[in-house]
Amino acid sequence: MLAMLALVLIALSPATAAPTHIQPKLVAESAAPAPGGATTLALTMTPEKPWHGYWANGGDAGFGMAVEWNLPEGVTVGAFHYPVPDALILFGMMNHVYEHPYALLADVRIDKSVAPGTDLTLSGVANWLACTDKVCVPEKAVISVALKAGDGVISAASRTQFDGWRALLPQPLDRAGTWERKGETLRFAIPLPAATTLDAPHLFLETREVADYAAPQAFSRNGDQIIIETKAKGDASGAVEALLKLGDGRGLTVRFEAGAVPAAGEAIATRVSGIDMGLFWTALGGAILGGLILNLMPCVFPILSLKALSLTRSGGDAGDAKVEALAYTTGAVVTALLLGGALLMLRAVGEQVGWAFQLQHPVSVLVLLILAIAITLNLLGTYELPTFGKGQALTAKSGAAGGFWTGALAAFVATPCSGPLLGAALGATLVLPAWAALPIFGGLGLGLALPFLAIGFIPVLRNRLPKPGPWMAKFRKWMAVPMGLTALALGWLLWRQVGAGAGLVYPLIAVSMAVVLLWHFGAIQRGDRRKWFLGVVALLLTGSLIAATAELAKTDHKVAASGSAFSPEALAKARATGKPVFVYFTADWCLSCKANEAGAINREATQTAFDKAGVITLVGDWTNGDPAITRTLSALGRNSVPLYLWYAPGAAQPEILPQILTPGMLTGKVDTK
């Protein structure tokens, strides 16, 4: 009734502009959309406090956005896509609202007949309802955005902004649910894996006259089905469109077909803590064990070995060993927490990022490359650090400092790979609140530090370390080999990210200056008195780093995939053929990914079997980051790579394969007879 009254008021209201309580602004992702192509519009809505706007179906007393467009010839605008709303009950009526700034997205298509350079300015009259808990006001405003037919270029800033808005849209569930009415009870079944966590869920019905919006909704789980029961209203039939809010701004759009709904199962209670404790402890255990496995990675092993070498050099003193072990553990845990906190903050502001996000930016890779080279040169004896210097009696404080920074370095360089158990554990952080997700990241750092922690606190293990001797110098030089290989891998990754053109010039200069600086530092330690040369090189290094950072910040290269590139559209097209589909998500900085590709995916036996069975392979390359891939990973409960999916013909959901593949595991998926 209130909605109808508001519509009447809009119709009778004067056309003159008036101040609004929700400020609209129309923005285009590309100001020069290409003829025959498309771009995305965002209608941003910024409510004043305490006002709120409405979802497409506003509920009992509201309505969504309506725009009367004035479009140039050859331009069409699609329907708006809404972010996940909140449920608000006022005076016994349910409202589907936004009490914060939000953006509605719509696709704009340009006909191929439009001539380049044509003015395509879009305008229209937008009508919406703005309310507080006491009053509702129908509002309207003229909205417009200047467009001109062009090349379709999207700036990096615009892409980042729109990706942030897209991240807040609900994800479509790729299979339909069922619904039925039994008397006054309305029942829904949503196919969701048992591992999916619901935190304060709510079902928003877009189809009207189906349910009593304000009635309680009972959620339960029956196997891989979420059962929802509420009070029916009206006499709807056929398909029903809805949005399932999972919690924390996440949601799924679901289409329900009329059909049988399974019996209600185990009730899903609204948890006071807001988390699934079973999921939390499982993820924490997986993170600790996964971090322990990371010690076998080539870039982490030499660091762990050097700390063991440090203990050997100290003669096995129990007090020093414990202090250094605790410092190392603290450094690893703190670094993992900082990286996890940065990831959660970036996601909170709409960035589409996942674990090891820092390696998706060439500037970070350059810094790590110089660091890896510095460690390699130190291991080779080119120069000495105070913590490795011969004849330097370290105090307990300096030993702790060395342990802390070594643990921090180990955690930082270990993040690019997601091994067994770790992928699922980190994926759990997507559905846990931030205060519960942070301990998962801390558990990764603890697992990484466990071997050294054990050496520091268990005398039997410490006593098994070899006695100090000349072998230590040779062992230290041998440890330069895996660290040098890590540096080469980072150099290859940087080349893959920026290409072989001018973008590599300043990074190469910076790396060269760093090598010269460290070499001359070592020469001074060996008696060379030309310390002025050190200052000159340091200035040159600083200048080249600044220039390299500025150059790499402009880089927007995409790494070419080795197979058919993954996209949601490509996946839908591949599945529509009725053939098996194998999707794998990889990155050039992921050691596990490359090992699986060389040892299983790209093996001749695997490719022959796939060709014979007509398997369609799609590759999601996450090296430089890709919002579409990040959203896909998130929808599957992951935020790291590798991830391997197998879609059998006709299957509604993919089978998630293990993170360590074998040729037999893949060939076994197809009938090669």
Helix content: 40-55%
Helix count, per DSSP? 19
Beta percentage is 15-25%
Number of domains: 4
Question: How far apart, in Å, are the first and last alpha carbons?
Answer: 66 Å
Q: Mind telling me the C-alpha Rg?
A: 29 Å
Question: Which stretches are low in confidence, meaning pLDDT under 50 for 5 or more residues running?
Answer: 1-17, 270-275, 349-354, 386-398, 556-562
* Secondary-structure class: alpha+beta
The biggest sheet, with number of strands, parallel, antiparallel or mixed sense and barrel status, is:
9 strands, mixed
- The pLDDT mean sits at 77
**Beta strands, count:** 24
Gross geometry? globular
Topology of this structure?
Elements: H1 2-12, E1 22-28, E2 38-47, E3 53-59, E4 66-70, E5 75-77, E6 86-90, E7 93-98, E8 102-110, E9 122-131, E10 136-145, H2 156-166, E11 171-172, E12 177-182, E13 185-191, E14 202-205, E15 218-222, E16 225-231, E17 240-247, E18 250-258, E19 266-267, H3 277-293, H4 301-313, H5 318-348, H6 362-379, H7 396-414, H8 422-427, H9 434-457, H10 459-463, H11 471-478, H12 480-498, H13 505-525, H14 531-553, E20 564-565, H15 568-576, E21 581-586, H16 591-601, H17 604-613, E22 616-621, H18 627-635, E23 643-647, E24 655-656, H19 663-667
Parallel strand pairs: 11-18, 12-18, 20-22, 21-22
Antiparallel strand pairs: 1-2, 2-8, 3-7, 4-9, 5-8, 6-7, 9-10, 12-13, 13-16, 14-17, 15-16, 15-19, 17-18, 21-23, 23-24
GO molecular function: protein-disulfide reductase activity
InterPro entries: DsbD_gamma, DsbDN, Thioredoxin-like_sf
Keywords: Membrane, Signal, Transmembrane, Transmembrane helix
